[in-house]
């Protein structure tokens, strides 16, 4: 198994299909249907930003998943102390390879990446109805420290 940073926007856009389909099925009011060309263009603009890191997970030279990370720096202000975090935007493992430890290995790599950069906080969020993500992150000892709520009118 190999995990490495990547700039292969075409591959990341293809691997994104599962995550995007999940979001659009759970929340069709907010998410468009997956469109490879549009997703590829959106990711292409992110690849030019040094704060974003895309990791590719491969096994036997087959792409099995990816992680989309962001190094965030929150400046100190009158209300809060400053801090840095590794923010996980997305993790996706191809459907046929789930529950085989690939996601856990990717999270271990992210933890090591944060540690090597002197960052002691990994943050993420997931959509409430995404029970697979909720269970996975709970198993990885993530703690809920904020709740995001909304009201429709």
Number of strands: 5
**Fraction of helical residues:** 25-40%
- Give the CATH superfamily: Gcn5-related N-acetyltransferase (GNAT)
Main structural class: alpha+beta
The largest pleated sheet is described as: 5 strands, mixed
- End-to-end distance, in Å? 48 Å
Give the overall shape, derived from the CA principal axes: globular
The first-level CATH class is given as Alpha Beta
Keywords: Acyltransferase, Transferase
Organism: Jeotgalibacillus marinus
InterPro entries: Acyl_CoA_acyltransferase, GNAT_dom, N-term/lysine_N-AcTrnsfr
Domain N-acetyltransferase: 10-153
What would you say about this model in short?
By secondary structure, the chain is an alpha+beta fold. The protein has a single domain (2-139), classed as Gcn5-related N-acetyltransferase (GNAT) (Aminopeptidase, 3-Layer(aba) Sandwich), CATH 3.40.630.
Characterize the structure shown.
This protein has one domain (2-139): 3-Layer(aba) Sandwich (Aminopeptidase). Helix content is 35%, strand content 25%. The chain has five helices and five strands, in the order E-H-H-H-E-E-E-H-E-H. The chain has helices spanning 9-15, 17-26, 36-47, 102-116, 131-139; strands at residues 2-5, 52-59, 62-74, 83-93, 122-124. The longest helix has 15 residues, at 102-116. It is globular and about 45 Å long. The model has no long low-confidence stretch (mean pLDDT 93). Keywords: Acyltransferase, Transferase. Residues 10-153 form the N-acetyltransferase domain. It comes from Jeotgalibacillus marinus. This is GNAT family N-acetyltransferase.
């Amino acid at each position: 198994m190999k995990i490495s940073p990547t700039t292969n926007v075409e591959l990341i856009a293809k691997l994104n299909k599962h995550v995007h389909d999940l979001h659009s099925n759970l929340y069709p009011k907010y998410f468009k249907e997956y469109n490879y060309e549009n997703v590829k263009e959106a990711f292409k603009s992110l690849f030019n930003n040094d704060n974003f890191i895309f990791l590719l997970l491969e096994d036997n030279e087959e792409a099995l998943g990816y992680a989309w990370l962001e190094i965030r720096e929150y400046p100190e202000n009158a209300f809060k102390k400053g801090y840095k975090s590794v923010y996980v935007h997305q993790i996706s493992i191809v459907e046929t390879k789930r529950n085989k430890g690939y996601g856990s290995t990717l999270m271990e790599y992210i933890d090591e990446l944060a540690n090597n950069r002197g960052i002691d906080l990994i943050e993420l969020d997931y959509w409430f109805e995404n029970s697979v993500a909720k269970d996975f992150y709970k198993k990885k000892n993530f703690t809920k420290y904020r709740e995001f709520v909304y009201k429709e009118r």
